[in-house]
Amino acid sequence: MKKLISSFAILLTLLLTPLAAQASWGIWNKSSKYENFDVQFVDTMIEHNRQGIEMFKIAAVKAKNVSVRTKAQELRRKMEDGTTKLESLRDEVASNANKSVNMDLPGMKNLDLSELVKASKDDFDKEFLDMAIDHLQGAVKLAETALEESNNPKIKEKARLIISNKNEEIEQVKKLENGING
Fold this sequence. Notes:
Elements: H1 2-25, H2 37-62, H3 66-94, H4 114-118, H5 121-149, H6 153-181
């Protein structure tokens, strides 16, 4: 009987240890409608940035307007820096958790860059700027969701920073678009 109880105690410990670890990492949030939201947020934002970087690389080469090319290069550098910081946050939040990209989270969608690549030189700048605004707004929406869903202060701090930075970038891109179209 003692062996059975001891075996049961070991089994129970093995089963509960990962749950305790998840709770301490801040990735198990009973009040969230998303399982492992913090991991999904960071991993999905990293993927979102990677797709944005590809879009900005295309625009840095193909844009007709010099100001659009310059803005694309600037946004690419910012996104690369932001991705590095998100990867560090990922290590802090849940380095041992499986990768969990969820492009069904609010504001997320896979970028289809084929239309951008095919766009004529005359149409490219407008199409790129519209796509860039939409992409940046997607990051804001996901970050707003993180403020609602996460209990982790580091995730909330990152979300507030993303909202502030991306809203500023959206205004810059809109101003650039208005200048080109005006």
